[in-house]
Request: fold
Amino acid sequence: MNRLYAALTTLFLFFQMAILSSQTLTFVGLNGSGWPRNLQVRGVLQGSIEKKNIAQQVELGYVRRENFSIRNPISGAAYYYQPLIGAFELSAFWKMSVNFEEFRFFGLIGPAISHGIEAEAFIVEESGHTYQAIIPWEKLGINRWELGAYAGMGIESITTKGVKIQIDFRYYFGLSDLLPGEASAYNEGALLGMGIGLPLGRRIAH
Reply:
């Protein structure tokens, strides 16, 4: 199932990039979002199909997710738990919107694929002493690649100079198991974010 989803995700991302390259209006910008102990900073490329309130959006950035279900043994101590995982992530979205005066309300959905690069976790020694530290990935015993999907909604506005300002709420669903053994663990969580986009195509007139 994970391999099938990986293949479909890859095809979808290439399809999104092809669509973006043909749009009449494109934006490039940054989007930052977070929730307690979760953080995301992304570069954004968005292409819009004018007059149809449909857009494709591709994002590449750094994400951090805390997982409360992982508890693994580790060399040099008894075990670690509750890792805060940092990863690079590529995601692609379909955005469907409704206009209301100068604002646009939208919903978004799309897949994501990420590659873990670091993790900070609570480490419990044999004596019972607990401390927090960054753990090298090879000691974690979890899968580095992760597949997932986002769904969310938000509001955006485009200024008279064509600059886009966006606020959104997203929920991430992890679709691939982080643990290679019999146990299972999936990432998930809510994110509240804000972004800004600068026009690459022609300017919009209200």
About this structure: The two ends are 46 Å apart (CA to CA). Residues 2-60+89-113+145-199 form a domain with the Porin fold (CATH 2.40.160.20). The longest strand covers residues 79-100. The CA atoms of residues 5 and 34 lie 26 Å apart.
